[in-house]
Design brief:
- The protein is an alpha/beta fold and about 230 residues long.
- It has one domain: 3-Layer(aba) Sandwich (Rossmann fold), CATH 3.40.50.300.
- Helices cover about 50% and strands about 15% of the residues.
- It has a five-stranded parallel beta sheet with strand order 2-6-1-7-8, with helices on both faces. The protein has a three-stranded antiparallel beta sheet with strand order 3-4-5.
- Helix 1 packs across helix 9 and helix 7 crosses helix 8.
């Protein structure tokens, strides 16, 4: 039976970084659902469609084929056959992804693919609604969070490392706006699953957070074997 670790939380909480490290440590497959939504966001951004145009987005969503592959141990994201991995961390892709992810048709298409991946492979999957909607029966559920200031600092450092332009004030504002959209959307809003463990990463290192999640996974394993 395949095992799933679901990691949810707001933008900038460290979900992707932690999920990758955990997957590597446990030899699981890492599924970056945020990257899948960003690819969808990039698709609509390129088409010049307004994020509030739900009719057009719902109609065209089925024409965007988003797939994942691993090349030299690194996850690659493909949009209609094009490797768009390097284009997904732009503010345009991120903001459009947050906007279009509220639409049921977009979510239906991507959730179906995510569930298919988790059905046959041991996965670590991160996003906004993994433990509540995508993988409600995941063996381990984590909700990562951090203060807006800490998350903005991390985002700025990421953009700086990639040589991309940014303004600190705008980055923090974007995070606050995305938090509001994610928690107030009608379709699969961001929330902590009742059986998820809350982990605040504000004052923790990446290794400390990863170790905490792996500890929770090991505890679950012992419980299932009747050793706890």
């Amino acid at each position: 039976m395949a095992t799933a670790i679901a990691i949810d939380g707001p933008a900038g909480a460290g979900k992707s970084t932690i999920a990758k490290k955990i997957a590597e440590r446990l030899n699981f497959i890492y599924v970056d659902t945020g990257a899948m939504y960003r690819a969808m966001g990039l698709y609509f951004h390129r088409l010049g469609i307004r994020p509030e145009d739900e009719e057009a987005i719902s109609r065209l969503a089925g024409q965007a084929e988003v797939s994942l592959s691993y090349e030299n141990g690194m996850q690659q994201v493909y949009l209609n056959g094009e490797n768009v991995t390097a284009l997904l961390r732009t503010e345009e892709a991120g903001n459009m992804a947050s906007a279009v992810s509220v639409y049921p048709e977009v979510r239906r298409i991507l959730v179906r693919q995510q569930q298919k991946l988790a059905a046959t492979q041991d996965v670590v999957m991160d996003g906004r609604d993994i433990g509540t909607v995508v993988l409600p029966r995941a063996q381990v559920k984590i909700f990562l969070t951090a203060s807006v200031k800490v998350r903005a600092d991390r985002r700025c450092a990421d953009l700086r490392q990639k040589g991309l332009p940014f303004e600190r004030e705008n980055v923090e504002k974007d995070i606050e706006e995305r938090d509001y959209r994610d928690t107030h959307r009608a379709e699969s809003p961001l929330r902590q699953a009742e059986d998820a463990v809350l982990v605040d990463t504000s004052d923790m290192t990446i290794d400390q957070v990863a170790e905490r999640v792996i500890e929770l996974y090991r505890e679950r394993e012992k419980t299932e074997r009747g050793e706890a």
